[in-house]
C-alpha cells in the first residue's frame, strides 16, 4: 500500500483520539489506515502483573524539568493498539458546561472554541457504544439524554470507606461512571464482551475485554468496516507536498517507509504530537506548538485501616464526588475519587512519595492489603513556563528526546493543599493510620491548542490545522484547558466530532 | 526462602486460579538470577550492600541488584528521567561512588547514616534507585506470599470486593492469611 494514491486518511496513533475517528471514517466508506508505534496486546495474553505489562507504556525516555517534574513511562502514556486506553482506569465522567468557559467565569485561562452542547450528543454516543456502567441518577452536571447503558460496578473497600467518611462530612458521593461492563455486551466488530471480573488490574491491561479499551471497541469496529491498522510503525516525520501535509515517514520492521493520503490525522498524544510537529517543522506558524502544557492536579491521600481491603480487587476508581467542582477563591475545581491500587504501583509510589527505606518501608508495604486511597483530579491553568521542547539529547533513532518543563502555579498549589486537607479529613473520619499524601500531576494535556484565532492556536475547533492544509490533530494536545475530569471520554467525543468534519470536507 | 514457603508459592502458581500468562511470568521471576554485566565488580558489591539496607531482603532469595545491573546493561528506560540527572547508568554509578570507600565493612547503623547523607545530597538519583529496588522487591512472588497478596490468582474473578469479603484462596495464601 506504500504511496497508495487511494488512501483517503492516514491516522497516526490508535488511542482515544485516533480510534473513534478511524471507525467513523471507515463506516463512511473512506479508505483509512492507522499507524501505531506499539503492538497488539490481546486481552487473554495479559498477565496479572504490573512489571510484565510495562510494554503497554511509552518507555522511550522523556526528560522532565521544572519545579514539579512530571513522571512519564508507567504513567501518562500508552503504547499499543488502543493507546493509553489499554491502561486507563476507564473512568468516564463528562466535563461540566462551565469547564469549557474558564476565562468567561474567572478571567483566567482560555475558553474552548466549542461548548458542552456541541459535545453532548457525542458524549451520549460514546457512552452507549462503549457500554459505560454508571448510576441511574448522577447528582452533578446537566441531566443526560439517555441513562448509562449498564448499572454501576460494585464498590470496593476504598470506595465504601470513602462513602462512609463523606456521609459524616456532608459531602455528596455517587458511584462513578466506568467504561467497564457490569453486564455482558455484544460489541459490533468484536463479539461478546463479558462482565467485569473485578480483577482490579485495569491499569495493567484488562485480560477479559470487559474494560472498554479501544482495541475491543472502536478499533474492532474500524477493522470490521475496512480500516487497516499497521502496528509497530514508529512515525519519524510528517511529509509535505505542494504546501500541504501529504503523508508520513515511519520505521517499521527496521525499514523506513512512507505513506501518503489526502488528509493526515495526528493523534499521538500531548507529547509525541508536538514532538513530531517540531521535528517536521510543520503547523507552527503560531509558535504555539509545545506551549500550554498542562497536567491535572492529582494529589493522592493514602492510609491504612484494620479492615482487610485487598486493594487489588474491584474497579480502582469506583466512587466519585464533584462537590468541589467550584471552590471559593480558586479558579476551577476538582473531583474526588476513591482509589484501589496494584501492589507494585503502591509500593513504588510510597517509596518515591515518602522517601522511606529500610525497615520502615518494608513494614509499611507488608500491610498492603489494608491500604485505602482517595485522589483528586483538578484544573491546571496554562502557563508560559510549562512547555515541551526538543532536547539536545538524542534517542536511539538519532531524534531529539522531548524535554518537558512543568511547575504548578499558585492556583494549583492552593488547590492541591485544599484537596489534601479535605482528603486527610475524610480518612481521619474512618480512623485511618499512617496517612500520607503523594503530590502528583496526572495526564498530559495541551501543547497544540485549539481555538478560533490562528495567531494563538494550532488547530481550529474541529482539530484542523490553522496553517497547514491536509493536517488534523485529534488528541489531548488540543485541549485549551485541562478540565477537572479525566480526559478519555471527552477525547473520544472530540474524535467523533473531528471525524464528522473530516468526512464533510472529503465529500465536499 | 524456606522449603515450605517455596512449596506454597509454587503450589499457588500452579493452581487452577492462575492464568497461564500470569503463571509463566511469576514462575520465571521466582528463580531469576542475573550475571553482572554493566557495573564493575566493586560497584556491584557496593550496590548489593546498599540495596539490602534500602529494601531489606536476602540477595540469595531475590537478585534485586542483579535485576538493576541487567536493566542497565540492556539500556532499558522506564520512560523518563529528571532532566537534572544523568542517564541511569552514570547516575547510579555516581551514587555508589559518593558513599564512603569502606561502605561495605561499616556497621548497619553507620551504613544507614551514610545513606541518609546520600539521600540528601543526590535526591533524584537516590529516589530512582529506591523506587527500582522497591519495584523488584514488591513484584517478587516470595514477597507477595509473605505479604499475603493473592491478586494474581484471578482466573475465577472476584465476585465480592467489599472490606473483609475474602475468597478462600485469599485467606489461605501467605503469612498474613495464616495469621488470621
UniProtKB/TrEMBL annotation, chain A:
It holds the Pfam family GMC_oxred_N. GO terms for molecular function: flavin adenine dinucleotide binding; oxidoreductase activity, acting on CH-OH group of donors. FAD binds at residue 235. It comes from the Bacteria. The keyword Flavoprotein applies. Its cofactor is FAD. InterPro entries: FAD/NAD-bd_sf, GMC_OxRdtase, GMC_OxRdtase_N, GMC_OxRtase_C. Residues 269-283 form the Glucose-methanol-choline oxidoreductase N-terminal domain. Keywords: FAD, Flavoprotein, Oxidoreductase, Plasmid. Belongs to the GMC oxidoreductase family. This is GMC family oxidoreductase. It comes from Deinococcus psychrotolerans.
From TrEMBL, chain B:
Keywords: Plasmid. This is Gluconate 2-dehydrogenase subunit 3 family protein. It comes from Deinococcus psychrotolerans. The lineage of its organism: Bacteria, Thermotogati, Deinococcota, Deinococci, Deinococcales.
Amino acid at each position: 500500500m506504500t504511496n497508495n494514491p487511494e488512501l483517503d486518511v492516514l491516522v497516526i496513533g490508535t488511542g482515544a483520539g485516533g480510534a473513534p475517528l478511524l471507525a467513523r471514517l471507515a463506516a463512511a466508506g473512506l479508505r483509512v489506515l492507522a499507524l501505531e508505534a506499539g503492538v497488539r496486546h490481546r486481552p487473554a495474553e495479559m498477565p496479572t502483573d504490573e512489571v510484565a505489562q510495562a510494554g503497554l507504556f511509552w518507555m522511550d525516555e522523556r526528560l522532565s524539568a521544572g519545579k514539579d517534574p512530571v513522571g512519564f513511562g508507567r504513567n501518562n502514556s500508552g503504547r499499543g493498539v488502543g493507546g493509553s486506553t489499554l491502561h486507563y482506569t476507564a473512568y468516564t465522567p463528562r466535563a461540566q458546561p462551565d469547564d469549557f468557559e474558564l476565562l468567561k467565569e474567572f478571567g483566567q485561562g482560555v475558553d474552548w472554541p466549542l461548548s458542552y452542547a456541541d459535545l453532548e450528543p457525542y458524549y451520549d454516543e460514546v457512552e452507549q457504544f462503549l457500554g459505560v456502567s454508571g448510576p441511574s441518577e448522577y447528582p452533578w452536571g446537566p441531566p443526560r439524554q439517555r441513562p448509562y447503558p449498564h448499572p454501576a460496578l460494585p464498590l470496593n473497600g476504598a470506595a465504601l470507606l470513602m462513602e462512609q467518611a463523606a456521609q459524616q462530612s456532608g459531602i455528596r458521593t455517587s458511584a462513578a461512571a466506568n467504561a467497564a461492563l457490569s453486564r455482558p455486551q455484544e460489541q459490533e466488530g468484536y463479539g461478546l464482551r463479558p462482565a467485569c471480573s473485578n480483577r482490579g488490574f485495569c491499569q495493567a491491561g484488562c485480560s477479559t475485554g470487559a474494560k472498554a479499551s479501544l482495541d475491543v471497541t472502536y478499533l474492532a469496529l474500524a477493522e470490521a468496516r475496512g480500516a487497516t491498522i499497521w502496528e509497530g510503525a514508529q512515525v519519524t516525520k510528517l511529509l509535505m507536498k505542494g504546501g500541504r501535509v501529504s503523508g508520513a515517514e515511519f520505521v517499521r520492521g527496521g525499514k523506513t517507509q512512507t505513506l501518503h493520503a489526502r488528509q493526515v490525522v495526528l493523534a499521538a498524544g500531548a507529547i509525541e504530537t508536538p514532538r513530531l510537529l517540531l521535528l517536521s517543522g510543520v503547523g507552527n506558524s503560531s509558535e504555539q506548538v509545545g506551549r500550554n502544557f498542562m497536567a491535572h492536579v492529582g494529589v493522592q491521600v493514602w492510609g491504612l485501616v484494620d479492615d482487610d481491603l485487598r486493594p487489588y480487587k474491584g474497579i480502582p476508581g469506583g466512587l466519585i464526588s464533584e462537590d468541589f467542582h467550584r471552590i471559593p477563591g480558586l479558579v476551577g475545581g476538582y473531583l474526588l475519587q476513591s482509589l484501589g491500587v496494584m501492589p507494585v504501583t503502591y509500593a513504588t509510589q510510597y517509596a518515591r512519595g515518602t522517601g522511606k527505606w529500610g525497615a520502615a518501608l518494608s513494614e509499611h508495604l507488608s500491610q498492603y492489603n489494608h491500604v485505602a486511597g482517595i485522589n483528586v483530579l483538578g484544573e491546571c491553568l496554562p502557563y508560559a513556563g510549562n512547555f515541551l521542547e526538543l532536547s539536545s539529547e538524542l534517542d536511539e533513532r538519532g531524534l531529539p528526546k522531548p524535554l518537558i518543563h512543568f511547575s504548578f502555579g499558585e492556583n494549583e498549589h492552593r488547590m492541591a493543599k485544599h484537596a489534601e486537607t479535605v482528603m486527610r479529613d475524610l480518612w481521619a473520619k474512618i480512623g485511618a493510620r499512617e496517612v500520607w499524601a503523594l503530590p502528583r500531576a496526572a495526564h498530559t494535556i495541551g501543547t497544540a491548542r485549539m481555538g478560533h484565532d490562528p495567531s494563538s492556536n494550532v488547530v481550529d475547533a474541529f482539530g484542523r490545522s490553522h496553517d497547514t492544509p491536509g493536517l488534523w490533530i485529534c488528541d489531548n494536545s488540543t485541549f485549551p484547558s485541562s478540565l477537572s475530569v479525566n480526559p478519555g471520554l471527552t477525547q473520544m467525543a472530540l474524535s467523533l466530532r473531528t471525524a464528522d468534519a473530516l468526512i464533510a470536507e472529503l465529500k465536499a | 526462602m524456606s522449603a515450605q514457603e517455596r512449596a506454597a508459592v509454587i503450589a499457588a502458581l500452579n493452581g487452577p486460579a492462575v492464568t497461564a500468562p500470569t503463571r509463566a511470568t511469576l514462575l520465571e521471576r521466582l528463580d531469576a538470577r542475573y550475571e553482572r554485566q554493566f557495573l564493575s565488580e566493586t560497584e556491584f558489591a557496593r550496590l548489593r550492600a546498599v540495596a539490602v539496607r534500602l529494601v531489606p531482603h536476602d540477595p540469595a532469595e531475590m537478585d534485586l541488584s542483579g535485576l538493576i545491573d541487567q536493566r542497565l546493561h540492556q539500556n532499558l528506560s522506564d520512560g523518563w528521567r529528571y532532566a537534572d540527572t544523568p542517564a541511569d547508568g552514570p547516575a547510579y554509578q555516581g551514587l555508589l561512588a559518593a558513599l564512603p570507600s569502606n561502605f561495605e565493612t561499616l556497621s548497619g547503623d553507620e551504613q544507614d547514616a551514610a545513606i541518609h547523607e546520600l539521600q540528601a545530597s543526590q535526591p533524584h538519583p537516590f529516589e530512582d534507585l529506591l523506587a527500582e529496588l522497591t519495584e523488584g522487591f514488591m513484584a517478587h512472588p516470595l514477597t507477595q506470599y509473605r505479604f499475603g497478596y493473592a491478586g494474581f490468582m484471578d482466573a475465577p474473578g472476584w465476585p465480592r470486593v467489599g472490606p473483609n469479603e475474602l475468597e478462600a484462596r485469599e485467606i489461605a495464601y501467605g503469612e498474613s492469611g495464616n495469621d488470621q
